Amino acid sequence: MPFAHAAAMDFMKWLNSLDELLYEVMSWLLFFPLTLLRSVFRPMGIMAEIDAEAALPDDQRYKAVLSPPLFLALALLLAHAVATALGQVDTIILSRHGLAGLVNDNASALILRVIVFAAFPLFLAARLVRRSGKKLDRDSLQQPFYEQCYPAAVFALGLGVGTSLSLDHHSIAATVGHCIVLASIAYYWLVETRWFARVLGISHLLAAGNVFLGLLEGTAFLIVVAILFSG
After folding, report:
1. What does each of the 231 residues of the chain score in pLDDT, given as a tens digit?
2. CA distances, 150 to each of 60, 68, 135, 162, 163 (Å)
3. Among the four 29, 110, 190, 200, which has the fewest Cβ within 10 Å?
4. Which residue pairs from 166-170 have beta carbons closer than 8 angstroms and sit at least 24 positions apart in sequence?
């Protein structure tokens, strides 16, 4: 009987865990598009909101939006889903050269892409911290990094979807894909320029230069990873 009682208790705990997990995952279906819309049309607003929530306890943050790293990961997952729907296969998974041998399924490929695209908010956040005169450490970097994840997710989604469409054999789809890629780059640069100018209190021209250097660092990291995983 004690064994049966313990088994029943374990089963109830499992059901409670499943209930929480199911609600969490299903809530993504609502809050991902809401977060995406706000990130596209009100990027400064959502970044300012995340900045204001920095003083709140962890359980009171991100109630109306997805958390930054999760939003970035889901954006990349959606971009990968579009590529799969178009019949495209991840070249890293197909390759067996260099470090690509470590990436043998969609899950590991997604993790790699999250790390690569997270480099953009990381380098931009580090530049923000340094230019603001603060000491760069794990504590001072965390909040700016979280804020940067929202425009980075829009950039990653647009770049991924646009690239997939540009590789399509239909000329119209390819043209639309190229336009999405260019629009994503322009969006990212403009949003970051406005944010740097606002946070640092500098001119938009100087802010654009700082953003360019940050994006250059992120692109360099992307190129290095591409070389390592292509052999």
Report:
1. 554 444 555 555 655 667 777 888 888 899 999 999 999 999 999 999 988 887 788 778 888 899 999 999 999 999 988 888 887 766 655 555 555 555 666 677 788 888 889 999 999 999 999 999 889 998 899 999 999 999 999 999 999 999 999 988 888 989 999 999 999 999 999 999 999 999 999 999 999 999 999 999 999 988 888 777 665
2. 19, 6, 24, 18, 20
3. 29
4. 167/86, 167/88, 168/86
DSSP per-residue string spanning 59-104: GGSSSSS--HHHHHHHHHHHHHHHHHHTT---HHHH--SGGGGG--
Q: φ and ψ at 56, to 5 degrees?
A: -80, 155
Q: Is the distance from CB of 174 to CB of 162 less than 8 angstroms?
A: no
Chain-centroid distance of CA 3 in Å reads 46
Query: What's the CA gap between 11 and 106, in Å, rounded?
Result: 32
Closest by CA position to 182, among listed 207, 163, 206: 163
Cα(160)–Cα(77) distance, integer angstroms: 10
Residue keyed to tokens 């390819």: 174
Q: Is the distance from CB of 209 to CB of 189 less than 8 angstroms?
A: no
Short-list 160, 203, 199, CA closest to 72: 160
